[in-house]
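Sequence design from tokenized structure. All designs in this work follow the same two-part layout: the structure record, then the generated sequence. An example of the structure record is given first.
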């Protein structure tokens, strides 16, 4: 087992280098203008050009139209889309088809969310996407907060069904301090962090990125050791 690691909200060349050198599997760019981590498509294109081979680039969108998504991807060719707003199943699929990219759907988990709700949500996306190019890649689970984008809050991980966990990206309030426990308890396919490895909003901390990845690897080693 190896948990994949995504560092999101990158805005600087130094942070691209830090995340890549630390061993990140994916790097995220925020195309939501209200976010302090927002980058323009042109800025993202410059950063993407610095990403080494074999590292996946991800574009985060909030309530963008399919045409807007496709135009961003034309300029900044991210490999995967991530929808964080109020997009419907149909809107997500339409944007993914127009941009010709797979997509992750963020789910903001509330206190009253049930395991069955998450399984049903995933099923809806898989069924709807199956006949339209199969662009749905999976769910990203985040904590519910007012507004959009990451809120740096942890949700109750016990709400995640055991059978769903190996297919999800776990997000929401992850940090160097809780990363090992999160992976040991949930065993997700991947983890996603942004504010937990920042010096300030939009400015990453290279030491924290290294420490976070090491904490995830510690959990993986423990799991693999049995």
């Amino acid at each position: 087992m190896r948990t994949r690691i995504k560092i999101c909200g990158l805005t600087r060349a130094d942070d691209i280098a830090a995340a890549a050198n630390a061993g990140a599997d994916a790097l995220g760019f925020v195309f939501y203008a209200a976010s302090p981590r927002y980058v323009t498509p042109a800025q993202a294109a410059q950063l993407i050009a610095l990403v080494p081979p074999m590292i996946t680039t991800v574009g985060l969108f909030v309530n963008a139209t399919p045409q807007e998504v496709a135009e961003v991807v034309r300029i900044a060719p991210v490999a995967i889309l991530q929808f964080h707003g109020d997009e419907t199943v149909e809107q997500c699929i339409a944007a993914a088809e127009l941009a010709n990219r797979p997509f992750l759907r963020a789910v903001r988990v509330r206190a009253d969310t049930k395991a069955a709700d998450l399984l049903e949500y995933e099923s809806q996306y898989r069924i709807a996407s199956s006949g339209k190019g199969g662009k749905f890649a999976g769910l990203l689970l985040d904590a519910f907060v007012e507004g959009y984008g990451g809120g740096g809050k942890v949700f109750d991980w016990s709400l995640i069904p055991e059978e769903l966990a190996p297919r999800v990206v776990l997000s929401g309030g992850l940090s160097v301090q809780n990363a090992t426990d999160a992976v040991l308890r949930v065993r997700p396919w991947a983890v996603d962090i942004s504010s937990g490895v920042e010096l300030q909003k939009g400015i990453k901390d290279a030491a924290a990125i290294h420490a976070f990845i090491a904490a995830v690897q510690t959990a993986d080693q423990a799991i693999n050791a049995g």
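The chain has a mean pLDDT of 95. We note this feature because it recurs in several other targets discussed in the main text.
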